[in-house]
Design goal:
Blueprint lengths: L1 H26 L8 H11 L9 H11 L6 H31 L7 H19 L2 H7 L5 H21 L6 H14 L10 H12 L4 H30 L19 H23 L3 H17 L3 H9 L11 H8 L18 H7 L10 E5 L5 E5 L8 H25 L1 E2 L15 H8 L10 E2 L3 H16 L1 H13 L2 H7 L14 H19 L6 H14 L1 H12 L6 H10 L7 E4 L6 H8 L8 E4 L6 H9 L14 H5 L11 E3 L2 E6 L2 H4 L6 H6 L1 E6 L2 E5 L5 E5 L1 H13 L5 E4 L18 E4 L2 E4 L11 E2 L1 H9 L30 H24 L3 H14 L9 H14 L2 H20 L16 H12 L2 H11 L7 H17 L3 H10 L11 H20 L9
Helix pairs in contact: 1-4, 1-5, 2-3, 2-4, 2-25, 3-4, 4-5, 4-6, 4-7, 4-21, 5-21, 5-22, 5-23, 7-8, 8-12, 9-10, 9-19, 10-11, 10-14, 11-12, 18-19, 18-21, 19-21, 22-23, 24-25, 32-33, 33-34, 34-35, 34-36, 35-36, 36-37, 37-38, 38-39, 38-40, 39-40
């Protein structure tokens, strides 16, 4: 019987593993995903140095998976998360079994009891497998799935130790835990949050209880946490760098640097640990030996960071921050390039985008400034946070409302209650959430059929039952897990001090907190079914019912919003950027998602390694500029720069370092070979001038007392300027269209008149390139890029025009979350710009319509909806180009969109690409005119004018409907007569601009009709 119960146990364990593994293999992204995944995959494959604080162990494991002899390289590295997540589900099952057995003392070899314990743990494990955040992490090559595995392993070992704590040699489990914590730092810091629970369980298991001892234990836990995080992780590398890491001044400078004595102190710390371990073992001081050996194992595990030092010195193509020494590694580990976030005040950022949200909670003012003196004698201004008079109630309101509720509790409810939408900032879905709320958050999302996700609150309720049962049956262990739940959840959210707005949702930080709740779900199932444990049929039926209602329902509902099968968008987006460029190009990018996948394509897929990518976010740092200047990754040409190495190799705080400045616009002149200029213009004056001139601008910072505009010139602005000055157009230079619109993005440094659209990039030209769309157009490149798209699964590593839009059409059933959907607008803008150019500049109506047709064929309007204004714009475009059928189709879409908003005005806030001042009635009226629904058009216009009955322009537009109707019906004589009959009503009035506008419009219409009738234009008297 005992063997059969063991088989039942193993059967449930294997089933949990197989179900989760199968699920993740079927839903994993088939190639590189967006965000940090492209960077991590490229870093893993080439063993490079990613952004701070790095993840060396993850990169080493990723390289092993990359060596698999089958599958897409991005998919192979994604498998790290797939396997890690499936193993985490398995281990959670084992943890839950241990936790239940810790308080359930019945004979586990009896079938009913075994089914009760193992079946309940199985339900909890599957609930975690199908939970929103965990599933999201499981199907992409990020560090959080592997980090979750380490946390689960540590907790499982802790439970094993708890069972064997009275046996000889039990310490080996604690030592293994210490080593795993050290090793896991090479993936993510999440596992160090388990220290509090470890210390608490050791106290509760091994020592007599008292309030005083409990307080000491909590203080010891806090001390150990800071020892591991603040000393081992942050300070120990500083000692080896010869830097004394304590007593930093206000300028964050260390009192002692580059000291051999301090380096020897670091060596001495390690030697002291070795001696203490030996001495404790020799003298039978078990606690001393355990602590010293744990310290050494932590350090040994943490030594994976030697990988960062080794690979940084190997100087791979990706070498972020270039941490080649212990001193630089210390800065790298401390994420110093990102700045520091204080614990108080909560509202500390001084950018306007943050201030706008701050003021919702109460008064806010920036921190006062103070001048401090650096060790080298230079003086700098820094925020004086000690004397910052903050509004305490507003700070607490921001903490509770945004940082706790919005940035943790909302995520928690996503996982165990339901989710209203996948749009950023969308709330959780409760059974009592109104239909209006669901409609609001899913309006024009393109995936409204997949939301809301409704778990009927059952995972939440079962978790609460489990929490209650746990405290009722095993209070000590319940406290251990409650501490883990809080430390990896809400307390972690408080410590992070996140600011509003965030570039993306951050729920992945709290996945281990959700693991604890999933365990309580299993205990909750146990608590419910324990009452009928003597009836095996009831136990089996109850388990089956709970499986259907909780994990299987979570899996069924979550599948449609978690599967990434056939999602190639990140790969294709990066490919489209690279294949818009000529050979040996330099391209400016700006964010994670137009850079990291590009790095992946170059480093892993070998696509367009001739191109030098210049990320303007990193371009604010001197170490990155130095690498652009002096490196030749994969044999690509250096980026020519005039900055001296001395400016780039010193600390960014050094006065000699390349840095920002404030100033006024400047006229820049670049000598250019006339033969090169002749490729971009036919103007002989410009060609013969042998130069290119533009007005250099940065980020606008207001006006001085004389009314002159002042600009902020950052390192990134100087970088763009210097590249253009040094290249002199002997190499092609581009901006990715993702950088932003040239009419407002300061990254273009005033070059907006010199840009030419070529595929997914703006090419910088030595001669003005203006057209009706603003930028110039290279028709040959646009035709090859858009009209000869390559939507097959092949790709070229060499220059080859032809963009990819795989699985973005209506026929595709691939799921794309809101981040992916937003990038489709960048595609549409390129199509629309080119079509507009063809229509209005080249007067090529048929070809313009063809371009827009291709846009709608490649980019589904149902899956990636646009706003009513854009729908009407496209309809008008088709009408102007003579494509009546498509014009009516788009007009019908615009009318439907406008009608929905007229019926539910609150949806205007969610309408894509639409301001809150937009008038849906006007859109509906104009759409009705295209559709020939004249009475409806008039009715909608009258609704627009209900609050402004004396608006002469609106009254004219209503009258004009009859002219349009007669013209459309072919009655040109009648249309002309109707138009001329309106003359007395709309005589021009020089004092009234609206009347002048109306009379001019009417006269133009009359002239057009007369010309169509073969009559000469006739002026008004």
């Amino acid at each position: 019987m005992q063997n059969s119960m063991r088989s039942l146990h193993y059967g449930f364990a294997v089933l949990a593993l197989v179900i989760s593994l199968t699920t993740y293999l079927l839903t994993v992204q088939p190639t590189v995903p967006f965000w940090d995944c492209g960077e991590f995959t490229a870093a893993a494959v080439q063993q490079q140095v990613p952004h701070p604080p790095g993840a060396p162990l993850f990169l080493m494991i990723g390289k092993i998976f990359h060596l698999l002899p089958f599958g897409d390289p991005g998919w192979r590295v994604n498998l790290v998360s797939v396997i890690s997540s499936a193993l985490t589900v398995l281990i959670l099952y084992l943890i839950t079994v241990h936790v239940i057995k810790n308080f359930y003392k019945e004979n586990i070899n009896e079938f009913g009891n075994a089914m009760l314990v193992y079946g309940s743990a199985f339900v909890g494990a599957l609930a975690y497998a199908f939970s929103d955040t965990f599933w999201f992490n499981a199907v992409e090559s990020e560090v959080y799935a592997a980090s979750s595995l380490f946390v689960a392993l540590i907790v499982w070992l802790l439970m094993v130790w708890n069972e064997k704590a009275d046996e000889p040699g039990h310490e080996r489990y604690l030592l293994l835990i210490a080593y795993l914590i050290g090793v896991s730092i090479g993936v993510h810091l999440l596992s160090i949050l388990t220290i509090f629970s470890i210390v608490l369980l050791i106290y509760l298991r091994r020592y007599q209880h008292s309030t005083k001892r409990l307080i000491y234990t909590l203080l010891i836990g806090l001390g150990l946490f800071f020892f591991v995080y603040n000393f081992i992780i942050m300070k120990l590398p500083a000692l080896f760098a010869g830097t004394f890491p304590f007593g930093r001044n206000e300028a964050r400078e260390y009192p002692i640097t580059d000291s051999m004595a301090v380096t020897m102190l670091g060596v001495g710390v390690i030697a002291l640990g070795v001696w203490a371990a030996w001495y404790g073992k020799k003298k039978n001081h078990g606690l001393l030996s355990l602590c010293a050996t744990s310290f050494l194992l932590l350090v040994v595990g943490y030594s994976t960071y030697a990988h960062i030092l080794i690979r940084a010195n190997a100087n791979p193509p990706m070498n972020e921050n270039k941490p080649t020494t212990f001193e630089k590694l210390m800065s790298y580990l401390g994420r110093e390039q990102y700045g520091e976030a204080p614990l108080w005040p909560r509202r500390y950022q001084e950018e306007q985008r943050f201030i706008t949200h701050y003021k919702k909670y109460g008064p806010w003012s920036p921190a006062p400034r103070k001048v401090i003196t650096l060790k080298d004698g230079n003086r700098v201004s820094v925020p004086d946070r000690e004397n910052w008079k903050t509004n305490t109630s507003a700070e607490l309101g921001y903490l509770v409302d945004f940082q706790i509720d919005h940035m943790y509790m909302r995520y928690f409810m996503w996982n165990f209650v339901g989710r209203t939408s996948d749009v950023q900032d969308a709330p959780a879905y409760w059974p009592f959430t109104s239909k209006e709320t669901v409609d609001y958050w899913n309006h024009k999302s393109g995936v409204s059929d997949r939301f809301p996700v409704n778990f009927w609150m059952l995972p939440l309720l079962l978790g609460f039952i489990g929490l209650y049962v746990h405290f009722a049956r095993d209070k000590q262990m319940a406290w251990v897990f409650l501490v883990l739940f809080l430390m990896t959840g809400v307390l972690a959210a408080i410590q992070q001090n996140q600011q509003n707005p965030q570039p993306r949702e951050r729920d992945y930080f709290y996945v281990s907190s959700f693991m604890v709740w999933a365990m309580w779900i299993g205990i909750g199932v146990f608590g419910l079914l324990e009452r009928v444990k003597k009836n095996k049929v009831y136990v089996g039926g109850g388990l089956l019912a709970v499986l259907l209602l909780v994990p299987l329902n979570m899996g069924w509902q979550g599948w449609k919003s978690h599967t990434r099968a056939n999602n190639y968008m990140a790969f294709d987006y990066a490919y489209n950027i690279l294949q818009s460029l000529e050979k040996d190009a330099i391209v400016f990018t700006n964010g994670d998602n137009d850079t990291f996948p590009v790095w992946y394509l170059q480093d892993v897929a070998g696509v367009r390694r001739d191109v030098r990518v210049v990320n303007l976010s990193l371009g604010q740092t001197t170490w990155y500029v130095e690498q652009l200047k002096n490196r030749e990754p994969f044999g690509a040409k250096k980026v020519p720069l005039s900055f001296k190495d001395e400016q780039l190799n010193v600390s960014e705080d050094d006065p000699k370092a390349l840095s920002y400045e404030f100033g006024y616009e400047q006229l820049v002149t670049v000598p250019v070979d006339p033969k090169i200029i002749a490729k971009f213009t036919n103007d002989s004056v410009i060609i013969n001038s042998g130069k290119m001139q533009w007005v250099y601008k940065g980020a606008r910072k207001g006006q001085d007392d004389k009314g002159r505009v002042q600009y902020f010139f950052g390192v990134q602005h100087k970088l763009v300027r210097d590249i253009i000055e040094q290249v002199k157009f002997t190499r092609p230079v581009y901006f990715s269209t993702s950088v932003g619109d040239p009419s407002w993005a300061d990254e273009y440094i005033g070059l907006d008149n010199y840009l030419r659209l070529e595929g997914m990039a703006f090419r910088v030209c030595p001669a003005p390139q203006r057209s009706v769309i603003g930028e110039g157009i290279n028709e040959e490149v646009m035709d090859k890029s858009l009209l000869q798209a390559r939507n097959d699964n092949g790709f070229s590593t060499e220059p080859a025009y032809g963009l990819k839009f795989r699985n973005l059409s209506t026929a595709s059933n691939v799921y794309y979350d809101d981040v992916h959907r937003d990038y489709v607008l960048n595609y549409r803008n390129v199509f629309y710009k080119y079509a507009t150019y063809l229509l209005h500049e080249k007067k090529s109506n048929a070809k313009a319509a063809k371009v827009l047709k291709e846009m709608n064929n490649f980019l589904s309007l149902d899956k990636f909806p646009v706003g009513m204004g854009f729908e009407l714009q496209i309809a008008t475009f088709f009408e102007t180009s003579g494509d009546t059928a498509d014009a009516k189709d788009m007009a019908a879409r615009a009318l439907a969109s406008a009608t929905v908003i007229i019926q539910k005005p609150s949806l205007l806030q969610r309408e894509p690409q639409t301001s809150e001042e937009a008038m849906p009635e006007q859109t509906a009226a104009e759409a009705c005119i295209i559709l020939g629904r004249w009475k409806e058009a008039e009715q909608y216009y009258r609704q627009v004018g209900s609050q402004q009955p004396n608006d002469i322009l609106l009254n004219y537009i209503i009258d004009e409907i009859q002219i349009i109707k007669q013209e459309r019906e072919g009655n040109l004589q009648g249309a002309l007569a109707t138009a001329e009959s309106l003359r007395p009503k709309y005589l021009a009035n020089a004092a009234d601009k609206r009347a002048v506008q109306v009379s001019t419009r009417l006269q133009a219409y009359i002239d057009k009709l007369r010309l169509r009738l073969g009559m000469p234009p006739e002026k008004w008297s």
